[in-house]
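WARN retry 2 of 3 for item q-0093 after timeout on previous attempt; input resubmitted unchanged.
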Amino acid sequence: MKKRIFNYLIPALLGVLVTTSCGEDKSSGEAQAQAQQAQKLPVISIPQQTLTGYSSYPASIEGIVNSGVRAKIQGYISNVLVDEGAKVRKGQALFKLETQSLSQDANAARANVNAAQVEVDKLKPLVDKGIISNVQLETAKAQLEQAKSNYESIAANISYATVKSPVDGYVGAIPYREGALVGPTDTTPLTTVADIEQVYAFFSMNESEYLNFIQKTEGATLQEKIENFPEVTLVLANGKEYEQKGKIQTVTAQVDRTTGTVSFRAIFDNPNQLITNGNSGTLKIPIEYKDVPVVPLNSTFEQQGKI
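OK item q-0093 returned
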């Protein structure tokens, strides 16, 4: 009899325990749900603003004038009158070429001029008296003019022996020194003089970038669009922004078939000559994005390295 009662009690007790456990779980879940519903979170309206981004392009720098200096005559350098990096003025002497042989030629040419002049002076009275024909005098005059021309040519070559700067600017590398034989056919110039009061920044865009940029710029013609291009920024090789803003001046408006790019040229003032020929950098063009929703950074969260 006791055994039968015990068998009845066990299922009953288990039922009570299960019911109690389920009730507790249900109550706990409802409490958590109510707590979550009761939690208040801040709500903001997301404003729309005009933001500025940048497109960046590698750029190479050159002075607005970059003039190669070459010898107009062949000769040996007798003196280098400036040093690399020196600031020079237009017409300033940079090199002297040996002129000894030219001076000898000039003396001989001058003697020929004198002799031809004597011949003309001798024939004039003879023609006036009818002793000789005028043809002989005209021939002598022609020989005099030829002698003068030869002398003037040699004298000009002597003046070319002083090689002068063609522009105001700064002297570049000087590959030739005293004793070097130089001439007008040399492929390498004696030096280069660059005017870097202003500098050009050359850069390029691919065809797609070019079309997007042109289409977004106001203007009916390409020239009008160029005038409306925004000011650009130059980031130097050390990562710092150049203090002077630049302006895009020219666009080739032709796609290079080899590279698939369109070339641009921007100009920058360079009052302190901080940048010069051969510098490189990155040119940044501002791009406006209008009516962009702006979400505060503190309203975002990061998950697995992504916002």
